[in-house]
């Protein structure tokens, strides 16, 4: 699993001013939750969906696994012709997961989860 700061992969994915304290102190729990909400909304706008959430961490996923039962039925009804389509879908469909965490200083830290063909 790859661990990196969110800003390196997504440009400036830090919330706009106003989410942080003006005096430079670390954000409190409420401000950290707002920062995390902002990052989640940015990902949702890009096609991600929330898989799980805690106070300071969100696991998001993009992509979808093929419906293997449906493809098995279609393969049986088409005398195995649909099997080629099923194989291509099985190889090319990717499921990506990412964990977004807000640390004590209010920075968004990203950990990419396991992904690949499903």
Keywords:
single chain, 6-stranded antiparallel β-sheet, 4 helices, 118 residues, alpha+beta, 36% helix, 26% strand, rod-shaped
Write the layout of secondary structure elements.
Layout: E1 2-5, H1 6-9, H2 29-45, E2 49-53, E3 57-62, H3 68-77, H4 82-92, E4 94-102, E5 108-112, E6 116-117
Antiparallel strand pairs: 1-5, 2-3, 3-4, 4-5, 4-6
How would you portray this structure in words?
This protein has 118 residues and is α+β, with helices and mostly antiparallel strands. It has helices at 6-9, 29-45, 68-77, 82-92; strands at 2-5, 49-53, 57-62, 94-102, 108-112, 116-117. 36% of the residues lie in helices and 26% in strands. Strands 1, 2, 3, 4, 5 and 6 form a 6-stranded antiparallel β-sheet that branches. A hairpin with a 3-residue loop joins β2 (49-53) and β3 (57-62).
**Beta-strand content bin:** 25-35%
> Mean of the pLDDT scores?
83
Q: What best-fitting shape do the alpha-carbon axes yield?
A: rod-shaped
Compute the number of helices.
4
Structural class: alpha+beta
**Beta-strand segment tally:** 6
Major β-sheet, in short?
6 strands, antiparallel
Secondary structure: helix percent: 25-40%
pLDDT under 50 segments (min length 5)?
4-8
Q: How are helices and strands ordered from N to C?
A: EHHEEHHEEE
Radius of gyration: 19 Å
**Euclidean distance between termini CA atoms:** 17 Å
Brief summary of the model shown:
This protein has 118 residues and is of the alpha+beta class.
């Amino acid at each position: 699993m790859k661990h990196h700061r969110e800003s390196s992969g997504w440009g400036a994915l830090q919330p706009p001013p106003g989410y942080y304290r003006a005096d430079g102190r670390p954000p409190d729990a409420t401000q950290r939750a707002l920062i995390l909400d902002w990052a989640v909304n940015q990902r949702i706008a890009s096609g991600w969906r929330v898989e799980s959430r805690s106070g300071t961490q969100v696991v998001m996923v993009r992509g979808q696994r093929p419906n293997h039962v449906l493809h098995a039925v279609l393969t049986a009804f088409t005398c195995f012709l649909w099997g080629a389509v099923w194989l291509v879908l099985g190889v090319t469909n990717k499921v990506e997961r990412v964990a977004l965490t807000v640390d004590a200083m209010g920075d968004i830290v990203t950990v990419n989860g396991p992904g690949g063909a499903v």
